Amino acid sequence: MQIESLFESSKYLGKLDRKKGDHFSSFLFQTSIANDPSWFIVRKYDRGEEYCIYTISDQPNLLIHLEKKEDP
Question: Of 55, 68, 1, 2, which Cα lies nearest the Cα of 29?
Fold first, then answer.
């Protein structure tokens, strides 16, 4: 797997909503796999400073979990 090229060709969409009790933050990226839109989630756990790829999905319903940006 070529992780570096995956990040280079993806678009950062934002942070996902954090549920009460979660011990991590999740970040959503959009990419294309086999010419189909796909998304991957990167997590950062509260107990450390490292980020990890949590999952890759072809389900667009992930977009409904993006944090809402506050109006100024």
Answer: 55
Q: What is the largest CA-CA distance in the chain?
A: 41
> What pTM was estimated for this model as a whole?
0.84
**Residue 49 DSSP one-character state:** S
pLDDT tens for each residue of the chain, 72 residues long = 677 888 888 999 999 998 888 899 999 999 988 899 999 999 999 999 999 999 999 999 999 999 887 655
- Using CA atoms, how far residue 20 sits from 10, 24, 28, 59, 61, in Å, is 29, 10, 19, 23, 20
Q: Which long-range contacts (CB under 8 A, 24 or more apart) does 26-29 make?
A: 26/54, 27/51, 28/62, 28/63, 28/65, 28/66
